[in-house]
Amino acid sequence: MSTTTATGPHAARNVSETTETAKQNRVLTPRFYTTDFEAMNRIDVEPVREEWNALVQEFRDDSNSNHFERDEAFADEVNTNLPPALKKEFIDFMVSSVTAEFSGCVLYADIKKRATNADIRELMGYMARDESRHAGFINRALKDFGMDVDLGHLRRAKKYTFFKPKFIFYATYLSEKIGYARYITIFRHLEKHPEKRFHPIFRWFEQWCNDEFRHGEVFALFMRADPKLLEGRNRLWIRFFLNAVFATMYVRDHDRPEMHAAFGMDPTEYDYEVFRITSECTRQVFPMTLDLDNPKFHRALERLRRITVSMERARQQGGVIGAVKRAGLTVAACVGFARLYMVPTIPNELPAKVLTQPAW
User: Looking at the 3D structure of the chain, how many domains does it have?
Assistant: First the structure.
């Protein structure tokens, strides 16, 4: 993979702190992606045509067309005087979320712009539409706190990572499905404990996450339409992305203790519930699932979390000593991920039908 930086007359303009945060490309921050657009244009969905047409109709029906509008109670529920530690973590969550949603919008819009394949062009347009709504809705919520992310500047200035289409499929499929699992788990918890809902945006999560689920279905069909993407050496890549996405979520969530405390949720229990839902979703397309009950899996995730905490402390320390510490910890992180990767997986037999429904 490679990265490029957008340049132009606007690249040097002054931007807000939140926009600068969104521009960062660190291990745990959302990235912007580009791909081989010609290869995307050559995708053939005929092997899954019946299910493809059914999914396209769902996008055309656009069940969430009026969902991302603030109701009259929204402003009354907003509390910008959150405890400082909670406020900091919540804003970090919002900035990370708007960046991730806008990343999808940019990628899907770029694919549509370059596509002549009618199937790909239409679906990418619908998904860009959805992600634009999501990003805009979060950004408006950030404005309640006197800040937002300059999405136009972000698109021009953020580095782009190149992924081959198959890597886009694996990574984006998992991103959409784990996004569904995260949102629905929070929503269901707050349904039972409405007194823990410290911001009204969480009331939107149920229908919102159905968009995420539907987007994942698109990439499931792409992969099932081309079986070689799920065979041979590609199984190793699938295993890599499963472990990488789960590990990233685990480390990131444990870096937000105040937010999970406000929810009344233990971050470890929350993460494993999300992992279980995501694993159930991925049975539609991936030939294996991770062994979530294996103690070695638990220990490897926790080891990576501790290493990441130490790396951040070394980064803040700076200087030569900090750099030396980070170099050593980077090696330790690679070894730690290798241990996670080597935990045996559970084989999965793919179902005849691909499409599933959000049933959690």
Answer: 1
